[in-house]
């Protein structure tokens, strides 16, 4: 351990005891009202906590709210969700993005029902064994739903901690240090029977984690943080330095190379030609119009050569403009070709005709909704 980090740890040890109390006092007055958050004094519902945490991965609170409400109305508990079909789950998830989460959500619910009697494990170790639950999600569920003394570190908490301690090491290398520093905010809680332990309600570990999340969302924001309103402002290192917006330190992002392809929007009267993507891989199991491969430096002629073979079709019409979409690891640009075929035309193998009026029931990712809107000029 470097001298700088050792010094930081010594400072933390001396200052940590008052921080949990300050955080909790602030949280009790200013906590956000969220659909999945239990009211003050109420026991959290592990199913709601788990469902929200999966949805909130890489997605903002405002976007998640309506989806959470839809899922809860359709499948009010893990047993109901575990009995649902994957196709139904994917349809309900459509538009939320990062579709592997939907497949893992379905697999996890089925595993909880099958192997745990429809009751979520109450430890990080047990939660980690479930599909789609990684270290952060296991810690979040364990702390929030079960009061385990552990600290989940999301983007908001990462920002608060990196500023509070002026962590100079850039992300992602700083993640381990930030998690250790965040853990000090759990404090040392004693009870009448001895030191606090995992699941001790008096530790309020879940509330401390949610307080930090709320602090990062409402006050310690990426730009123009409202430091004067922060309950931890008196000993915030970044505020003392006068440069909180420079934290957390980050290395320059490497953007993926642009991939190009073609999408084929084919009408048969009031129907559209669709197919399902392979279960594994990008957008696995989702619905799409036929497309070419998405390749770097692919030209239009090569992409068009991969069009679906349709009888009774005269020619493809290229739509003016392109559809642009950005995935996590690469940007995509699609040229859209359209065609119309007679009502007697059969769908090629592995494809199907779907009523345009029923498209809202299909598990179409956002990129495909853009393509269809462009192809049909909606």
Number of strands: 10
Order of helices and strands: HHHHHHHHHHHEEHHEEEEHEEEEH
Q: Low-confidence parts, pLDDT < 50 over ≥5 residues?
A: 1-14, 189-199
* Global morphology: globular
| End-to-end Cα distance | 59 Å
Question: Please, could you describe this protein's structure?
Answer:
The chain has 378 residues and is an alpha+beta fold. Strands 3, 4, 5, 6, 7, 8, 9 and 10 form an 8-stranded mixed sheet that branches. Strand 1 and strand 2 form a beta hairpin. Helix 2 packs across helix 12, helix 3 runs antiparallel to helix 9 and helix 9 crosses helix 12. It starts with a helix and ends with a helix.
Key attributes of the depicted protein:
10 strands, 378 residues, alpha+beta, 15 helices, two-stranded antiparallel sheet, eight-stranded mixed β-sheet, 40% helix
SSE topology:
Layout lengths: L2 H13 L2 H13 L15 H11 L4 H14 L3 H5 L3 H8 L6 H17 L7 H5 L6 H12 L8 H10 L10 H9 L6 E2 L2 E2 L9 H14 L18 H5 L17 E10 L2 E6 L10 E2 L6 E2 L3 H5 L12 E2 L4 E4 L4 E10 L10 E5 L10 H11 L2
Parallel strand pairs: 3-9
Antiparallel strand pairs: 1-2, 3-4, 3-6, 4-5, 4-10, 7-9, 8-9
Helix pairs in contact: 2-12, 3-4, 3-9, 9-12, 10-11, 10-12
Q: Short summary of the structure?
A:
This protein has 378 residues and is α+β, with helices and mostly antiparallel strands.
């Amino acid at each position: 351990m470097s001298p700088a980090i050792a010094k930081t740890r010594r400072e933390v040890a001396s200052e940590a005891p008052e921080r949990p109390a300050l955080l909790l006092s602030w949280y009790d007055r200013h906590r956000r009202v969220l659909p999945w958050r239990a009211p003050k004094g109420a026991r959290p519902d592990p199913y709601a906590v788990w469902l929200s945490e999966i949805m909130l991965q890489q997605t903002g609170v405002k976007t998640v709210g309506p989806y959470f409400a839809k899922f809860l109305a359709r499948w009010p508990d893990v047993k109901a969700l575990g009995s649902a079909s994957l196709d139904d789950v994917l349809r309900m998830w459509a538009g939320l993005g990062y579709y592997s989460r939907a497949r893992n959500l379905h697999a996890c619910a089925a595993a909880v029902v099958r192997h745990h009697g429809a009751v979520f494990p109450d430890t990080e170790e047990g939660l980690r064994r479930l599909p789609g639950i990684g270290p952060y999600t296991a810690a979040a569920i364990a702390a929030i739903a079960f009061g385990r003394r552990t600290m989940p570190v999301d983007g908001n908490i990462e920002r608060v901690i990196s500023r509070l301690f002026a962590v100079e090491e850039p992300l992602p290398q700083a993640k381990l240090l930030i998690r250790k520093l965040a853990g000090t905010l759990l404090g040392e809680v004693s009870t009448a029977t001895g030191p606090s332990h995992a699941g001790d309600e008096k530790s309020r570990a879940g509330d401390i984690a949610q307080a930090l999340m709320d602090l990062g969302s409402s006050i310690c924001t990426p730009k123009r943080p409202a430091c004067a309103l922060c309950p931890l402002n008196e000993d915030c290192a970044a505020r003392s330095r006068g440069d909180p917006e420079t934290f957390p330190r980050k290395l320059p992002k490497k953007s993926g190379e642009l991939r190009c392809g073609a999408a084929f929007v084919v009408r048969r009267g009031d129907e559209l030609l669709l197919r399902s993507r392979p279960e594994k891989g990008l957008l696995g199991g989702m619905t799409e119009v036929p497309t070419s491969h998405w390749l770097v430096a692919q030209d239009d002629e090569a992409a068009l050569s991969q069009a679906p073979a349709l009888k009774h079709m005269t020619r493809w019409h290229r739509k003016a403009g392109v559809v642009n979409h950005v995935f996590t690891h690469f940007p995509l640009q699609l040229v859209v070709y359209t065609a119309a075929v007679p009502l007697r035309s059969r769908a090629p193998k592995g494809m199907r005709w779907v009523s345009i009026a029923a498209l809202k029931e299909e598990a179409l990712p956002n990129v495909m909704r853009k393509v269809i809107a462009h192809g049909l000029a909606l």
